[in-house]
Structure formats: C-alpha cells, structure tokens
Amino acid sequence: MGVRELRNQAGRYVLAAICMLIGVLAIAAVAIVNSVALDMLVAQQEQLNGRDSSYAASFTVEASEIDGLLDPNNSVDALSSAMRESLDPHGANVALVVQRSMLVATPSQAAGNEAGASVVVTWVDGDIQQLQRLPVIQGSLPHGVYPPGIALNEAAARAVGYPAVTTLLLSDTIPGQPVSVSISGVVADAQPEPAAYGDLALLRHFFPRSLVDESVKLRVQGAGLSLATVNDAITAQFETHGFSAPEGASRVDTVDSVRNQVDFLRTVFGACALAILLIAAIGTANVGLSSVAERSRELVIRRALGARRRDIFAQLISGALAVGALISAVSVALTIVAVYHVVPSLIPAASSVLAPEFPWAACASGIAAAMVTAVVGGLLPAIKATRLPVALALRE
Amino acid sequence: MTVISARGLTASIPRTTTPMLKSIDLEVHEGESVAILGRSGSGKTSLLSILGLMQLAESGQLTMAGHDVSLLSESRAARLRNELIGFVFQSYSLIADLSVLDNIILPAQYGAPQRREALRARGADMLDLVGLASFARSRPARLSGGEQQRVAIARALVLNPRVVLADEPTGALDSTTRNEIIELLKSATSAAGSCLVVVTHDSEVAAQMDTRLHLSDGVLA
User: Could you tell me the fold of the domain covering B2-220?
Assistant: First the structure.
C-alpha cells in the first residue's frame, strides 16, 4: 500500500523525502564521526604516543651494571622478566626502550669516508607493536642480534635510498667500530624525521658502553591497567633487583584525551543533528498537511466509496513509512559509500588506521532516524485526514 | 421489494436548530428510479448525505436493503456504503493519479478481499458497458466530461450495489451528453437490479425517472 501511495503521489512525497534525508544524514554523520573518526584519531595517537593505557618510567643503568649486561642473568633482564611476571595477570605488555642518536652511513658514504647522518634509533627489548601502532610496510621488524638488522621509518628509507640500498653502517656517537646492519623492513611511525628501530639486544651486544647513564624507559601497556598497579609493581621489583625506583610511572598515551574530545564533539554534533531531525520532522509534517489539504477531495471520495478512517490513516502513514524506508536505504547506501570509499581515500597508505568495519551504528542510526521522522512527520497529516467529514464528498 | 425505507427523518442546519429536513418519508423499490427535485438550499444534499450514510439523521428511522441504518458506527457505515451504495457525483470525482481502470475498481479496495485479476476483469467489463474499453490505462484528465461521468457510473456499479445515489449527475454536462448519461445511468442500474435516486434541479432529467419527488423547505412531496 505504501509503495502504491508513494508511486501515485511521488511529486508530493519528494519534498518530504528531502526534509527527511537532511535530518537522517545528519544523524548518520554523527554516528560515522563517532565510530570511524574516533578509530582514526585513536589510531593516530596510538601510533605517536603509544596504545591505550600505556605507562612509562625512566631509570638509568649504572656503569657497574654494563659488564653484566651480556650475562643472560644480568639484573636488567631479571628486572624486565620480573616486571612481566608481576603484571602478567593484568594482561600487560612490558618492554625496555632506549632511544639513542646513532650515525648511519650508506656503503657509498662509508667508502667516501663520510660520517653519515645522525638518526634516532629506538631499541626495544620486547614487542614494540604491543606498545604502539607501528605498521610494517615492507619486510619485518628485526629480532635478535644475528643477522644484525634495523627497520627504518619512511623518512629514513627515503634518505638512504632503500630499497636500492639494503645495508648500512651503524656507529655510535662514542667513537668505535661501525657495525654493518641490513635493513630488515620499513615501518610507518608517522614521524617526519628519519628514525630507525632495532632490538635492544643488538645495541647491548655491539655497543654496550652506549648504555652507561643512558635513560632506559620501562614501558607497560595493558587495557584496564591502572597507574597504581604499575607503580606498585615498579616499587616492588626495582627494590628486589637492586635498582633505585624511578620517581614513578606516568601515563604516556593520549587516547583518553582524544576520546573525551570526540565525546564532546559528538554531544555537540548530536544535539545539532537532533535539532535538524526535528526540523526535518516538522518539514515532513508540513508537507504532509499541505498534501492532505490538496487531496482532501480525493480523501473524502475514498471515504464515500467505503474507506474507513483507519484505511485513510493506513494509506497516508504507509506513504510516509515508504518514504522513510526509501530514505533509510539511501542513507545506508551513502553511509557505506562514505565509510568504504571516502574514508579509506583519506587514510594514507602507510597509516596505522585499519580499514573501517561495517558501520552498523551509523546504519542503525540512519534507519531509526528515518523511520522516527517518517512516523512523527506522517502522524499529524494522517490524523487530520481521518477527521475530514465524509459528507464533504457531496459539497462541490 | 423495498430497498430504501425512510420514516420521519429530520435534520438541522449544522450548529443551529433551524430544521433542514422535516419528517421525511420515502420508499424506493428494487429497480425503481426516483428523482428528487429542489432548489438550492432546499435540503437535497442533506437528504442525500443521510441516504448515503455519510451523516446521521437527528431523528426518524432509515432502513436500507433490510439493514437498520438509523444509528451506525463510522466503520459500519463505511462498510455498508461500500457494500450497498454506489455514488455518482456532479463533478465526477475521479482520482487524478489513478488510471481509469483503477478508478473503477477503487471501491473494491475497501471491500471484501478479491483476486486482483478477477477485479480487473470486472472493471474491464464495466468499462465495456460504458463504452470506454480503450481508455483503461488513461488518466481521467484525458477524458471529456461525459466520458469521465461514464467512468464514474462504472465505478458506482462495479460492486453491484443495491442503491445508486446520483448527485446532479448531469450538472456539468451539455444537453446532448446529459441525455446520454441519464440513459446510461438508467439502463445500467436497471440491468444491475439496483434502485436509482437522482438529486437534481433539472426537470428534464427528473422527467426520465419513474418517480419524481419535490423537496421544498425541508418537506418532501
């Protein structure tokens, strides 16, 4: 019945459909912002500063400890293992991270006795991808000491001429013998400056002196992990393993802050979208009322021919619901196009942002908004139509 | 057999106590055609509204095809209008957005469920009866006034009503077309076994009916 009504009165329903579409798209847009944009912003922040619920505490390695670092039972590794065990019940990921500027030269630069460029290398004892989003674009992250390897970020890969250049000479700022390392892969870290990533074991093996008085970061990440839990573990384990406890861990990721900002924007946009939806419903009702006024003759003739009030009500409300269904389909289609085609085109190829999932929330919001607008906007005209006196059929 | 029986029907001008119909008595038998003549404001339309179950009389008794229709709920009145009565209006009152055939079978949409194919076949038969078989898919606006009134007659008869009520059915037509329409109306209702009540101020139309009644100042004589 609704489709027939829509087909017969297509012209009249176009205006109502336009009103409805504006409101529905506003609601769907808010849902998209809420899901996809939040994912994107969170991903960016997790790439830059660490995954959700990341904590860090810095400590330094005394000179007296350095000789023991090559010993498998040295105190730093024991501390690291103890921290992992301590926080394992909380599902935490634990890693030691050292960031150090190193000199990197290509073979041709080395042949020309050039020093090469200074690059900040992040040395990690643990799985860095558990700590921050670090998509591997080519190859893989290096692991262990042999074969010696490092991964470059995109800026560094461009600077050294990868993939034409596959090996580099790595040396510490402390004078010493350079080490030839292969480029194991390229990662996307969202940093504009050249940077590299390597296994902390390699640094300790080839450049043990570089760790003296170097700041070592203990990084801990785990959803649901609290700062108090991390600090308790640090206090207990550092004391046990003979280290002076750091001042205290701090949260390093900014995911909560992003979520709060998106929540605020969602509230503002949601209120605007609801206002637009309300205006759309009023517009739909207005179009419906003027349509009833124009069609009053037709409607009373239908009543005279045997239509009951509920038949007239059903006829008009089904027309509005058919428009609502049509607008639902359009909004779902536009949402899918936006999420699967427009949003991916805005995400850089080497981004840490994953492809968006099916936008259930946006589609459900669009459908609900369309049907609510259809009912709210269609109810008043339908009720008015049922109240037309049937005897008007005889009044020309 | 009496199809319409009215006893002492009264009605007032809406929102006043001024009487519009004063104790109307009327009997119409099966196959009979009745003309109700009267000037503007004489109460013709009010009487037709009551006979057409569109409004209730303030007092009196009305039976139609054996049903007491003096007091009816809105939905029962709609059902009986659909089952018992066919309407022909002065300005045809076809629905512009529907095809001619869909206009004819429109009353069936509100009656007992019927198979669509059978309904369309019935509509086509009615179109054939009124000589407009080739216009089934046309929109009413493409038809002349006389042709539109023929479609309205086909619509009035499509469910084999016991009563056909015609309100100034030739009011918008020229004299030649008027005669054709009255001829068609009489023959078609007679063939269907329906009784015909025509409200008109045209004495030539009234002259072609079996019975002529005058409504003046709310009194039928």
Answer: Rossmann fold (3.40.50)
